[in-house]
Amino acid sequence: MNFKLGNFSYQKNPLKLGELQGNHFTVVLRNITGTDNQVEQAMNSLKEIGFINYYGMQRFGTTAVPTYQVGRAILQNSWAEVMDLILKPRSGAEKGYLVKCREEWAKTKDPAAALRKLPVKRCVEGQLLRGLSKYGMKNIVSAFGIIPRNNRLMYIHSYQSYVWNNMVSKRIDEYGLKPVPGDLVLKGATATFIEEDDVNNYSIHDVVMPLPGFDVIYPKHKISEAYREMLTADNLDIDNMRHKIRDYSLSGAYRKIIIRPQNVSWEVVAYDDPKIPLFNTDVDNLEGKPPPVFASEGKYRALKMDFSLPPSTYATMAIREVLKMDTSIKNQTQLNTTWLR
């Protein structure tokens, strides 16, 4: 629905997962209030220094129960808590039938009765309830297994991302935007430590930090202990990230802490009508539509920015760095309602 597909061409080889070079973004920030000087400063900083490569808020879900909490419960093997976190009533905006389904579950703990309240059975809640009806309340692991594998793994990856975001904040807080002895860099796919006499051969853009797992090494400085403390507080053993269920064993990975976007360009444009598009979409270009023409003066100003990012980095985090604003769901929703008044 509401999709247009096009620009197809025959190629000798198919595209496979992992072959994505990156994504190119064109983003318009409307109704900006900063001076041209502030815009220049913010955009130059994005271009020259980059931004902290945090996982974006969408990684943690949009509801009152963040996905990383479910992930943590899976890693702890606390299956009753996994079930409870996914099915219990929660605050915040949800579709009416989900609210009724949760209420029914809280009242009766009867999966079949709660399932009857759901017209849409393909959501995670519906799949888990179907699993509980089939396997019984004593076998939550099998019931949870009915949820497609990618969705199940999303929860534990979310927990890894949550740890990584916290640790990278601590790393930058402690040592700033320069490489220090004990930091990690990648040589090919292998992580190695930066030694004292080697520091000047690297920049902050080379430094990586691990996502927790059984196949990674941790930095050789204070932050290593911070990883251990955070996982211990969550009742997890950093030295044993293998899980009884193989699917939930975490091998870990490495991720750059600062990303410098490529192909960065921007312009500030004036406009009067908040409803007119300020740039051509891909579809407009394929259909040969002329680009919009801007007035030299206008009631509002917008910043049009273009940049490319490697896979698994978040445009929301690049934009947050430019705006110096909170990108949480709560704050963004508030912005929307104020702007629409």
C-alpha termini separation: 29 Å
Strand content: 5-15%
With helices defined by DSSP (H or I, 4 residues minimum), what is the helix count? 12
According to DSSP, the number of beta strands is 9
- The helical percent reads 25-40%
Mean pLDDT: 92
Form type = globular
- Radius of gyration using CA atoms only: 24 Å
Number of domains: 3
Indicate the structural class: alpha+beta
Order of helices and strands: EHEHHHHHHHEEEHEEEHEHH
Q: Low-confidence segments, ≥5 residues, pLDDT <50?
A: none
How is the biggest beta sheet arranged? Answer: 4 strands, antiparallel
- Order of neighbouring strands in the sheet with most strands: 4-3-5-6
Overview of the structural elements:
This protein is α+β, with helices and mostly antiparallel strands and 341 residues long. It has three domains: 23-50 and 260-336, no CATH class; 67-150, Hypothetical Protein Yqey, Chain: A, domain1 (Orthogonal Bundle), CATH 1.10.1510; 156-257, TruD, catalytic domain (Pseudouridine synthase, 2-Layer Sandwich), CATH 3.30.2350. The protein has twelve helices and nine strands. The chain has helices at residues 36-48, 67-75, 79-87, 96-108, 111-116, 124-135, 140-144, 149-175, 222-233, 282-286, 315-323, 329-340; strands at residues 23-29, 51-52, 184-187, 190-193, 207-211, 253-256, 258-259, 262-271, 300-309. It has a four-stranded antiparallel β-sheet with strand order 4-3-5-6. The protein has a three-stranded antiparallel β-sheet with strand order 1-9-8, covered by helices on one side. Strands 2-7 form a two-stranded antiparallel ribbon. A hairpin with a 2-residue loop joins strand 3 and strand 4.
